[in-house]
Structures are given as C-alpha cells and as structure tokens.
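Question (not urgent): is this output format expected?
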Amino acid sequence: MELFLDATWEDFVKEVEADKGIILFGASSCANVVLNGMKQKLNIKYIIDNDTAKHGTKLFEKYIISSAEKLKESTREDIILISSTWYSEIINQLSDLDFKGKVYSFLHLRNRVYDTEDWDFVCEKINLVKQICDDDKSKNILDRIVEKRKNGIKDYSDICEANQYFIPDIMKPDDNEVFVDGGSFDGETVRQAIKFTQGKYKKIYAFEMDKENFKLIPHKDFDSRISFINMGLWNEAQMVSYFGNDRGSEIMDGGNQTAKCVALDDIVDDRVTFIKMDIEGAEQKALEGAQRIIKRDKPKLAICIYHKPEDLWEIPMYIKALVPEYKIYIRHHGNNNEETVVYGVIE
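Got this back:
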C-alpha cells in the first residue's frame, strides 16, 4: 500500500486525470461531497463501506456499495480515496487486507485545498482574534491550529479536550435555561443540555435540517418543553439545496436534498440564554439571522468554527462586534482538525 496523506488536491487530480477508475471507501457524507460538491468529476468503479446494511445497495441509485472483501480483487494499479472521517481505522484495515494500491484521504486533500496559502494574511487575522480572547489558553490553541494547518499536521490530540459545548469552567447553567440547538442530529446535544441544566430548563429549541437525521430523534423520550424543528438556520427564510447524509449535511448548490431554512430571530420569541451551532459551514449566516436575539439577550454562545478556514477568525470577530461585552474563549474538541468551538459568555 502506498499512502499519500500529504498530497494536494492537484496531486490527486493529476493522478486520476487519465480517467482512471477509483474506489471510494466510505458511503456517507464525505462521499456526497466527493461525488457532488467538487468541481472535478471522478470515475468511480465502486464504493466500499463497513456498514453491512449498505452492502448491495446503491448510492444515488448509481454507485454500487460493497464490503471490504471486494478489495481482495484489487491490484497495484487501483486507487482508493477514503471518503470517511474514520480514515485512521480504514488505513489500518487496508493494511490488514494487504491492499497494494495507492491510498488518498479526502479530508486530508480537502484541508489542503481549502486552507489558504497566504499565511501572512492568516496570521494577521489570527492576531486580531487573539486580541479579543480572554485567556492565554485560547491564544495558544489558535497558534497551534495555524501551525498544524500550515505544516499539514493531522494530529490535534495535544489540544483536544472533553465537554464540547458545556465546558464547566466557562459555561454555567441558568435556572431557567432557554437553549437553542443548531444541528441536533439525533438529539444527542439536547440530552447533554438536559444533563448540563440538571433538568432545570424552561425551553429547548432543537433545529435539524436533514429529514433523515430528524427521523432518528426519539421524540417520545423528551418532554413537552422541547421543540424539535425540521428546518435549518440561516440569515433569512428560504429553501436551500444541500447534500444530506449522516452527520455531515452541507448547504451547496446542486445538492441531492432541499430543506427550509429560517432566521432564528423570526421563529423564537423567548429570552434565549444559550445558543449552540454545529451546522456544517452555515454558522456565519445563522448568526446573522440571530443577531437581534444575541444583542438583546446576550446568550451564552458555543459556535463551531472549523467548517471553513475563514471561520476561525471571522466568526469570533463577528460575535465580539455584535456584543463587545462578550468574553471570548477558543477550545478544540477533536483528535483531528474538526470540532474547534468559539465560546462567548457574559460574566
């Protein structure tokens, strides 16, 4: 097996530009972006996935999904593009299978594609964010993230910590919490919010755009104080196109699904005490659609800033501009480049 984790997208495209068929490993949200969100259209031979329920089915009614056993037919000429967040485990699996071809990882390629090479510009922006941060830990995390991006370092375990969204020394519950969960998936963050408040909450508004994810929410397990809303958050009310699958639905033109999005300001009248957003790159637009609530209520904020490179500086600066009294903290909660969060609190 030849592993190319340091390759650029240009390297990969050059490798496959002669219309070589490639194998995708992973039939989830990453595969959706590979097949529909990138400019280059790839010749896919077939797709591998470890979920037995997907074997024998087709993605987009076109691409056959097989088990990893099919790779026993592969040769040194075969190219695998890992289209999954579980790339470390898949690389180990391919080694165990004695795969002899070339292996690329889409998340690694995408990071190289999307990360700007104008590091002077990046550092200038990061220095501005550091000026508004309220502890040295936040500043150090920002420096480490830039260093990792610049040098293509994939391991973020040295800055990773637990309790995403609900860090005890930053986030303190209100007695009558009104919590907005942007990107509720199957209700997991709602459960965490209930635990965070010890059940002493007034209301929870949980937004999940993807209709398949929305079906996963066990509505009967939650009481009447919780409203699950099958819409996305945006800066205005409109229908959007997105690529939907599992945790990674992304708003993009030409997607395979459509959904209604709303501005939080237009749908929630309560005094909001806590807003969390993990909505796959729509965070900036959603904050714009919640600016009235944020300025009026000054809720605690836990907003993901890793989906787009510029989110790392644009979102913290936007939050501070909306409410200058916010104390700003940056924390990272994943072993790879995902799950960086900016926290805004009034102390």
